[in-house]
Amino acid sequence: MGGKYKLKEVTYSLGPDSWEVMRGLWKGAGYKTHKRIHENWVSALTLLVPVIGSYWYAENYREKEKLHHRH
Amino acid sequence: MARRLSILKQPIFSTFNNHLIDYPTPSNISYWWGFGSLAGLCLVIQILTGVFLAMHYTPHVDLAFLSVEHIMRDVKGGWLLRYMHANGASMFFIVVYLHFFRGLYYGSYASPRELVWCLGVVILLLMIVTAFIGYVLPWGQMSFWGATVITSLASAIPVVGDTIVTWLWGGFSVDNATLNRFFSLHYLLPFIIAGASILHLAALHQYGSNNPLGINSSVDKIAFYPYIYVKDLVGWVAFAIFFSIFVFYAPNVLGHPDNYIPANPMSTPAHIVPEWYFLPVYAILRSIPNKLGGVAAIGLVFVSLLALPFINTSYVRSSSFRPIHQKFFWLLVADCLLLGWIGCQPVEAPYVTIGQIASVGFFFYFAITPILGKCEARLIKNSNACEARSVLASFLTSIGLLWW
């Protein structure tokens, strides 16, 4: 079981709602979102471009095929 | 911690306590780490609903389809059991795929957790077999023809192929013997998955969980209960909502309408499509025009997954600190999505070409893994920007050569 670790002391006290930690959930939401986008936009592109690009290519190809057979 | 119930110190309970209550967990693990326990929940749902469905199901070619209808119409709560079981399989795969990609992103397969990863791949394989034979049981058109197509793949194996197919079928076609052995195996395999999951957990708990930073977290551990338990619970509630939407509002959206037609060996459906969770592998199979080549490619998918911890050369685990790997990871995700999409398209242009490129792309990720780790190690070593650029150039050249 991962050896013997000294676990951090746990204090059983009030529930999370009483600690008012939820109030901090939206704190700096704008900054956090901006930071996320700024740091990950290249990764997002590497995910989206091949998927959307391939789908667009396939649709375009099929449309051209259809028109080719029509005329 | 100071006050602990004495019952938890007793032999059986102490094991339970050590692994599920006082288990030391890294304090920084995120919600992505909740998919492991969620997969366990899915397995429990599948076993429980499956056991109750088996009480009303009849594994006979003349009665199987009707017995499913009987479950849906006559058995009290039968519709719920069946929809939970059918959609539960899809949910199980969604959870396991997310669990898998989390492991891949954060390098959870890297030393010393190779065994955890390999056992995970074995569980995935068992899941695929279980789900496949489970889909045959309703004895609809897609059940019958899916079974015929997939079991026939074994005939591609030289010399013994045809014998294997006859042995799988229990005769000379997919028939009553096939349905009976599939039912028997479908009941057995989930318990083997449960056993493998316990081994997976035992192997994990030997070295402890990985964390988003991918570093040794021995100095910063917290007890599983209540901290991680509460975190997992958030995931369970979110999952319950997501699962309920499918079960109560769109129970057939993930299935195929042809499976509501009784199996007819004299009428082949226009498109034989497997369940959505098999589509990426199915796309790889179809991308190779040779039958044996396709089967070998499927084998290679699982060999690649099993080999991943051993071909990995990176000293850094988490992709948060591996910017180049991070891009390849997202390309792999895109590639798998593309393969999934291609798997349900007809075999015609341009889908064939896209499928073939995506199949190459899938294996390309595993081919560059050893090179990537070494290149990143050099980049870290050489902080000089100019040298870093030259290493990057040599890396890109090697990728180009490999691709060529």
Automatic annotation (TrEMBL), chain A:
Keywords: Electron transport, Membrane, Mitochondrion, Mitochondrion inner membrane, Respiratory chain, Transmembrane, Transmembrane helix, Transport. The keyword Transferase does not apply. It is a single-pass membrane protein. GO terms for cellular component: mitochondrial inner membrane; respiratory chain complex III. It is found in: Mitochondrion inner membrane. One of its GO terms (biological process) is mitochondrial electron transport, ubiquinol to cytochrome c. Its main location: mitochondrion. The chain crosses the membrane at residues 41-58. The keyword Transport applies. InterPro entries: Cyt_b-c1_8-plants, Cyt_bc1_su8_sf. Belongs to the UQCRQ/QCR8 family. This is Cytochrome b-c1 complex subunit 8. It comes from Marchantia polymorpha subsp. ruderalis. The lineage of its organism: Eukaryota, Viridiplantae, Streptophyta, Embryophyta, Marchantiophyta.
